[in-house]
Amino acid sequence: TCHILDYERELQLGNIGTSSKPGLAANSGTPAIDSVFASQKWIRPNNTGAYPRNHMLQKRFVRDILDCVAIDLLPLDFIERPTFIQLIRNLNQSIRLFSRRTIGRNLRKHFLEFQSKFKKIAASVAAGSFHLILDMWTDKLKSSMIGFKSQFINSNWKLMINTIGFRHLPDSHTGRAIRNVLEEVMSKTFDIPVEKVGFICGDNASNVTNACKAAESIPQPNTDDIDFSDGDDEEEWEDFDEFFQDSQNAQEDAEDCYNEIITELSTWANTSLTKIPCFAHLLQLAIKDAIKSNDTVSGMVGGAKLLKKYFHSSPYWYDRLKLRAGKGLKNQADTRWNTVYYVFDRLSEPKFREALEQVLAETRKSKKQCKVSFSSYDYERIALISKLLAPLTALTNELQADKVTSSLVIPGLSFAYSSICQIDVEDDNGLRDFQLALCKCLRDRFGSGVAEQEIGSINRRIQKNAVFANENLIIAS
């Protein structure tokens, strides 16, 4: 029933009535229906008296709609929904509305305009000055994605940052697969030669590192084995010498074009690219190492996971918690940056802690009781752990922000390190060990020399970058 009422309310908001008796300000409509599940035929909005397509406000509206789709990931058909139509009509009745197909065409048009413009900009960049940032992730639909950003300084000494590609990566995430996508974006889409590329910044996974290494040349097919004839009798074409000459020239032009493409791709494949590490990723690895090495903190992280698991499995109790606290638990995921800090920061809030304890006490009177509990001492520890992680969380967010440069690395690490050392953990030996572990892991990841770390009973060599011995980073600072 509630869905039917919501649907009818949406029709009213959109002023959608019968085709013969529309609402007062209706610009769209639907035939009268007896059931919400009856087949319907939507009527397109009426654009009588609307702005021309080249009007300044109309062009701005189109651009804003494209941003809604490209940036906020709104579906293409949202512009055809009754509530949206009513919203636009209330704001400005002269705005020209259009279909989702028009959005699609405009997206393609604006991409081609950006592509043409960016090719010219990239062509003016000096060799070795076009830098790239790449990252891979899983979207809400569990599809693997890879994205590319470019970063360079233009002739006016302005830092230019552009997102130049998002690609679906259905294949295995091998170094070769990543390199293929990189070559497709750079060479095929934007005609950027490999000698323009300076540095590539990515995480420290082996597949990303391998993607920057030189690969074998792409094999060229033997054109002698290709039959370009059409099987006709040459005697029937004795008067078409000119045709054969044109055909031969066209064939040679096609072969030259093909060879040029293969040469460019082979150049990309055979050229080793200079990779620099993602310092934010290294920072998160240092945090992860410190947590794993400390039984006190790792045990409390495990307790927070069990707490979240319980409330996820019981919507009733989770609703009661959110009703009392005004907010829910933060989700702790090992692959998401800073989640341990966000989880503990939420648990250390006095109002949330009080609401959580009340709900946990109520669950213990029910059949499905929560077996996780935190003492007052545990909450004090949670607050201190949150304080210890706060400087590293702030630095991570700064390093992954837009328009950040390497000049922030050394000062940021120095400030975070000193901030951790200055936090008073009182007489808690477990947290004192965690404080020392954080400092040690930072030295291991960013200090000089070869570092080996013991996690459990296994010694392993860790990924690191000696930033304080890096002349370029020192000059940048």
List keywords for this structure.
single chain; 477 residues; alpha/beta; Nucleotidyltransferase, domain 5; five-stranded mixed beta sheet; two-stranded antiparallel sheet; 16 helices; 10% strand; globular; disordered N terminus; zinc ion binding; metal-binding; zinc; ZnF_BED_domain_contain
What does this structure look like?
By secondary structure, the chain is an alpha/beta fold. It has three domains: 105 residues, no CATH class; 124 residues, Nucleotidyltransferase, domain 5; 198 residues, no CATH class. The protein is built from 16 helices and seven strands. The strands form two sheets. It has a five-stranded mixed sheet with strand order 3-2-1-4-5. It has a two-stranded antiparallel sheet with strand order 6-7. A hairpin with a 2-residue loop joins β6 and β7.
